[in-house]
Amino acid sequence: MKTISIRELKAHWTEVERQVARGETFTVLNRGRPAAMITPPQPRSVLKWDDHLETAVTVDGRSAEDVVRTDREGRW
To answer: Which domain holds residue 7?
Structure first.
């Protein structure tokens, strides 16, 4: 992890951005104290849940699928 002042960050943003894209992390200092961290983005994981309606909690004894269908009646 590297450290950089706000002034340096403003002056060299393009180079910092390139390094972050390659995986580098920066701590941004404001008057010598840590103020922020710049880190590369983390890929999001996608939740795959095919049977979500079948495994949902029932409402008043009705399945989640029935509740959704009733709620959507007349709107679609």
So the answer is: 2-38
